[in-house]
Amino acid sequence: MKHLPKINFRAFLLVLKNFFSKNLLLKLVSLLSALIIWTYIVDSTPSLTRTKYVEGLSVSVSGASSLNSQGLALATDVYTDYINKISAEVEVSQNQFSKVASSNVGIILDLSNVRSAGVHELSLSAVSVYGEVTHIYPETISVQIDNYDSREVPIDAVLTGIQKDGLWYSIDHDSMNPQQITISGPASLVHKAANVTSHIDITNQTSSFRRASLLTILDSEGQALNTRLLSRSSSTCSASVDIYPTKELGIFVDTSELNVREGYTIESISFQPSTITVAADQTLLDELESLPIELPENMPESEKTFTKRLALSRLSELKYVSTRQVYMTVSIAEEKDTNAINNIPLHGISLSDGYSASISPNAFSVQVTGARSQIASLTANDIYAYVDLTGLTAGTYELPIVIGNNPHFSYASLSPSLAKVVITEIADGDDTATEVINGAE
Question: I want to staple 172 with a disulfide (CB 3.0 to 4.6 A). Which of 144, 165, 240, 280 is the partner?
Answer without folding.
Answer: 240
